[in-house]
Design brief:
542 residues; mainly alpha; 4-stranded mixed sheet; globular
């Protein structure tokens, strides 16, 4: 509970509601449950992949509002994540102080040493649930239970991980399978055997509700996979559209996550350095007195986590080799099949598992160091007893300080707060003064128009569909806006900026059907805005 509260507080500081991905996920979820909400929004009407998340959360906003819904979903997701890591810490044999220290250090490490922009503490998103169930499955696999009991539990929890996020769940399942194979080969042991085969069977019998919950994971996973296959394979798009969509997704919209050549060299250097430090800490811990005196279950769990992190790194290396080559991508031999493979997020698992292994290793090593100081009589028992509280408290302070620092200087924060208030006022005016089907366009980077104004958008850079036809249409709509702007700017002179005329706005309306254009810097306009404040102006298209 304490670990969960720390994560929740950090998430609210790090990513105030609504976070960037929150508007994307919860907006889609609300429309999934009620298609009449923003019914003519292009993105919301596109096919859905994360159906379990949308079905679980989409019914909440009418009762609680979007902000309270975001808080509830964040709390639920982080609870699953905290519980999954707690169960993993139990089989690892971590002390309470070591677990809390590692849990709170983990998000900081993920944010600072990630290669492809992965995160685990932020807004409400389906992958938070998926990672929680993944770690819970790893813990169940190491429990001292009968083989059938642990297999049923761990495989069902993996199914839940797949249900919440197919990419995370399936990669996680493959990594765990590979880790078990490596343990059986290198350790000359059966990694799934119980610590005491004669007494372990039935030590924790599952009740009816628990088994129904595990069974539901398989049904949810089948639904999620079916939805993903329908979007990716059966959307009806021809090969040309699929090719264009793959290119746009891998080398444009999600290049910072998927294309290794778009990831900065500094990020790769951070990742390599972090991997070296992680396995140095893991080797020290696994060869320490702690693990030599540990139980079979604890040794097995540490080996499973370590091998999983190593396989995640090998997966990243494979992704790098697949995508390595000259840019533009057309210059790379076989780039068509390469970009199809790169869609599967080769780098995200290492971005999560390596920092987790490092944080748990450092957390436990710090507690072990305190115990060693006690044996040398360098500290009093009173101080040592409180050391187990001081280290987690320090890690929580680091996490909160890191979250605050991500917002920049105090001056920058005050400017951002003022601009956010102006944005909310702009959206509130739209909500109060326009019909619900009014089609809008917001400035780039403003992802919460639907959240506050509850009006459909013509296109948003953030809200990219996942089906091939939708991705291509999304790009075409962005091009229409870009070409229109270039046409307007082309009317200007060096000494005088272009005037966006009433005829220009009418032309934009005829091309897109837009009714409201919200701008922060664009202009000057021939027309007077229907609303304006210090940061934004709204123009009605004739």
């Amino acid at each position: 509970m304490v670990g969960w509260l720390g994560l929740l507080v950090a998430s609210l500081i790090l990513a105030p509601i609504p976070a960037v991905n929150e508007t994307h996920y919860l907006g889609k979820a609300r429309h999934f449950a009620n298609p009449a909400w923003c019914e003519n929004d292009f993105f919301l009407n596109s096919p859905s992949v994360h159906v379990v998340f949308f079905a679980s959360t989409g019914w909440l906003p009418p009762f609680f509002g979007m902000t309270a819904t975001a808080l509830l979903v964040r709390a639920a997701g982080l609870f699953v994540l905290a519980y999954g890591t707690y169960r993993l810490s139990q089989v690892l044999g971590l002390s309470s102080g070591g677990y809390l220290s590692g849990l709170w250090l983990w998000p900081v490490l993920v944010a600072t040493i990630n290669v492809s922009g992965e995160w685990i503490v932020g807004g409400a998103e389906s992958k938070v649930f998926a990672y929680g169930f993944l770690f819970w499955a790893m813990a169940s696999l190491c429990d001292d239970e009968s083989l059938l009991t642990k297999l049923w539990a761990s495989l069902s929890l993996l199914a839940w991980s797949v249900a919440w996020h197919p990419i995370v769940g399936l990669w996680g399942a493959l990594i765990i399978l590979g880790s078990l194979v490596l343990q059986s080969i290198l350790n000359k042991d059966r990694p799934l055997r119980s610590a005491d085969p004669d007494t372990s069977a039935g030590t924790r019998s599952s009740g009816l509700l628990a088994n129904l919950f595990l069974l539901a994971g398989w049904l949810a996973a089948l639904w999620s996979i079916a939805a993903a296959l329908q979007v990716s394979l059966m959307s009806g798009a021809d090969e040309t559209i699929r090719f264009q969509a793959n290119y746009l997704q891998v080398y444009y919209r999600l290049a910072h996550h998927l294309d290794p050549m778009a990831i900065p060299a500094t990020a790769w250097l951070r990742g390599i350095s972090a991997a070296g430090l992680t396995f140095a800490a893991w080797v020290v811990l696994t060869h320490s007195v702690f693990l030599k005196s540990a139980t079979f279950t604890q040794r097995r769990a540490w080996h499973l986590l370590g091998w999983s992190a190593l396989l995640a790194i090998l997966l990243s290396i494979a992704g790098f080799l697949i995508g390595f080559g000259p840019r533009p991508a057309e210059k790379m031999a076989g780039y068509a099949w390469r970009m199809v493979l790169l869609k599967f997020y080769f780098f995200r698992m290492a971005d999560v598992l390596v920092p987790l292994l490092l944080s748990f290793s450092l957390g436990e090593l710090s507690i072990m160091a305190a115990c060693r100081m006690k044996r040398r009589n360098n500290v009093t028992p009173w101080l040592l007893n409180r050391f187990a509280l001081v280290v987690p408290a320090m890690m929580l302070a680091v996490l909160v300080s890191f979250a605050v620092s991500r917002h920049g200087s105090w001056k920058g924060i005050s400017v951002a707060i003022k601009q956010h208030h102006d944005w909310q006022a702009t959206c509130d005016w739209i909500f109060q003064n326009t019909p619900r089907k009014t089609l809008c366009f917001a400035p780039t980077g403003h992802t919460s128009l639907k959240w506050y104004a509850e009006r459909p958008e013509y296109v948003s850079f953030k809200d990219c569909p996942q089906d091939a036809a939708g991705i291509v249409e999304w790009n075409n709509r962005l091009l229409i806006i870009t070409n229109w702007l270039q046409t307007q700017w082309g009317n200007g002179l060096d000494a005088k900026p272009a005037l966006i005329t009433k005829a220009g706005l009418k032309d934009l309306h005829e091309q897109t059907g837009l009714q409201l254009l919200i701008t922060d810097r664009l202009g000057p306009f021939e027309s007077e805005p229907v609303y304006q404040n210090d940061s934004y102006r709204i123009y009605e298209l004739p």
